[in-house]
Amino acid sequence: MSLELALLLFLLVIIPAFGTVIVYLFKKSIDQRRCLEKVQLQVLIPRKDSDADTKQDNSKDFKDYIGLMEQLLAAMNSLYSRKILSRLRGQHTFSLEYISYKNQIYFHMVVPRKYQ
């Protein structure tokens, strides 16, 4: 095998493979660090226990809750970044979950600690 062919093989195969491994390990270490910096929050919604609360119009309350959720999702969307460095490091992730347990509904969010 000639020296030029060996050099070409080195430039076309080994250097990109080594670079890919380095980028993978870099992203994996950042993902592990980001995973450890998450916090779980329980979202509490006030209950209507009194008779005065049950007589009120529920459609207005429902529209208020929708408006609040729309603001929350818009604020979360504003945290998205299209920068190249952010794409390389990865974006922050958020999780919205609801749990039904013993006829109760619980809402939970998992967010990065700095957005708590």
Condensed summary:
By secondary structure, this protein is of the alpha+beta class. The chain has helices at 3-36, 51-55, 58-77, 84-89; strands at 38-43, 95-101, 104-112.
The secondary-structure class comes to alpha+beta
Number of domains: 2
Number of strands: 3
The low-confidence parts are none
Terminal CA distance: 61 Å
Q: Provide the β-strand percentage band.
A: 15-25%
Overall mean confidence score, pLDDT: 79
How would you sum up the global shape?
elongated
Strand order of the largest sheet: 1-3-2
Report on the structure:
The structure is a single chain. By secondary structure, the chain is an alpha+beta fold. It has two domains: 1-36; 39-116, no CATH class. Helices cover 56% and strands 19% of the residues. It contains four helices and three strands. Strands 1-3-2 form a three-stranded antiparallel β-sheet. It starts with a helix and ends with a strand.
Give me the secondary-structure topology.
Elements: H1 3-36, E1 38-43, H2 51-55, H3 58-77, H4 84-89, E2 95-101, E3 104-112
Antiparallel strand pairs: 1-3, 2-3
Jot down its keywords.
single chain, 4 helices, three-stranded antiparallel beta sheet
